[in-house]
What we know:
single chain, alpha+beta, 2 helices, RelE/ParE_toxin_dom_sf, toxin-antitoxin system, RelE/ParE_toxin, Type II toxin-antitoxin system RelE/ParE family toxin
Amino acid sequence: MTPSSAFRLTRVARSDLQRIVERFFDPWQRDEAIAYVDALMAAMERAAAQPGLCTPREDLRPGVRMGRYKAHRFAFVVRDGVLVVLRVAHGRQRVEDMFR
């Protein structure tokens, strides 16, 4: 899945997604990895439609909100009506570490 016009991924967020595929899926699980990332990006699409339903995290940066899909979270801001995904991380990772 490619990002829609409702959201976009920063370069760092794209790298985060690549690491998720490399870390959590074996090479022979390519179809499962693609399906998981597609579903994660669908969650981003839903967040773009209703960003106010996601958790505000002003303590990290002004305007940052957190969305979630299964074991992963994504940090985003809304700029000019577009959801901009800043980072994607496993739920066990400290959110604060995402912004160091």
